[in-house]
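User: Small ask, check this?
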Amino acid sequence: MPKYNLIVIGGGTAGLVASTLAASLQAKVLLIESGKLGGDCLNTGCVPSKALIRTSRYIRSLRLHSDLGVTDVNFEVNFEHVMDRVRTVIKEIEPHDSIDTLEAKGIEVKYGFAKVVNRNQVAVGNDIYTANSIILGMGCGPMIPDIPGIQEVEPISSDTIWNLTCLPEKFLVIGGGPLGCELAQAFCRLGSHVTLVERSSRLLHREDPRVSASISRSFEQEGIRVICDATPISFVTGAARYSLNLQVGYGGAIQVDFDKVLVAVGRVPRTDGMEWTDLGIKLDSKGFLVADKHLRVNGSNIYGCGDIIGGPMYTHAAGYQATVATINALFWPIKREVVNYDALPRVTFTDPEVARVGHTQASATREQIRFRETAFDLANLDRAIADSTKEGYCSILTKQKSGKILGAVVVGEQAGEVMQMYPYPTMTECVREVAHTRWWEDQSDVVKRLYSWWHRKRL
């Protein structure tokens, strides 16, 4: 019966960061994955979507050629080649998370469905593995709502959209959150006639209204049909194409025709197959693991991180949570790290981009914080004028008396880079990566041997 300092279940961002950090701290680690290493981010999420968005932005720049003094630009979009490039990008990044790379770091990898037997044991088939601590990072999958007729129209999700071989002529997107907005704009630029349906009164409803207005204005200029305050009633299968019946506002009923529908209305946790009650682990009303401020889910030695705990669902958030969970799992009670999302950035990769950290005006008001907003329009910024990227603004919220920064938002070209807080995926990450590398190089052999002694002592 093999014994480990740490068993990590799930080979997505959370699991990869947790196992890599633990191995670098000289711990004996087992990583268990039932599907593809790299998780949703590499295979169906951040990586493929940003590759597609890169192509769509280039197409947009070609269509605006006359604004930049360029004439006679002719081009044709080859959707099959576009999707081939997306798959090529995934293949190029795959080795970063491959089993060979992980084993070279000292991580043992096992494929199969993992079931937690008790607080110290995990079963994979007939094999039982034992560890001092366990980290759960199984992630989430796309939610498909129970709307009459939805299965007959063969909906696609963030998992399956990458299997498309033909560009839909009429593309329907249900969900006006970050994912829905990003892909609606990308497919519009590729050549689809896009309709975006959102249940709330505005797009990106978790952002401030001014952000939503900026994105809506951009979508309108590009020809995306946006229908807010709309409730899907039923899908209809026609002879030539499909239709969605909508209830709009308090009275209006309309029908939207489409060839393909993308459903982007949320995520559901992958928590099936475990006896959570027997393990002393609670699930919330949506099925997510309930974690405390130390990310413990059983109040002891089992931790949760990433999308499965229902917090901020961003790759860099999963990495941050994995770091906290791993340090606590390996060094408790000497180290007791606590999660704090006050400075966690987030980016929506629309055009203009939306980057935010901390409070919005709405969240500060809910918490009865007296604040002051200071804003600057990009229309008055010399570089934005020179680049013809004047849509957007920068805003900072501060406490009225102390001036403490409560939050900030940047709406505009490359807002995620402007934010300078290493959200994923942005170019600023390279600064963090080189800092991490230098930190580990500076750790003396004595420190590394001390880590190794500590973990051997606990086996």
Remarks:
- The first helix runs from residue 13 to 24.
- The first strand starts at residue 3 and ends at 9.
